[in-house]
Amino acid sequence: MTNQQITAQENLKKLQEQSKKLREVLKEHQIVIEKNNIKLVMNGNQQVIEFSINGVPEQHITEVITEACQKTQEIAAQKMIEMTI
Length: 85
Prior knowledge:
Order of helices and strands: HEEEEH
Strand content: 15-25%
Radius of gyration: 18 Å
Number of helices: 2
Structural class: alpha+beta
Number of strands: 4
């Protein structure tokens, strides 16, 4: 393994550690949006905590929003990795 490969691996490990710490901090933050009888609660990691319409939980919508957010996070993570290599 070359020095450049070792450095890249070390940088990737540092980035992963920083990302994990950031996710832990962001998880503690909650954002609540309420408009037109619709309520959305997310944490700073873009995880949907609650979605309701007229006070009625809408689990299927929660699942779709959560999946979309996860996919955008995966794309962002992949792009970050590509930028560091």
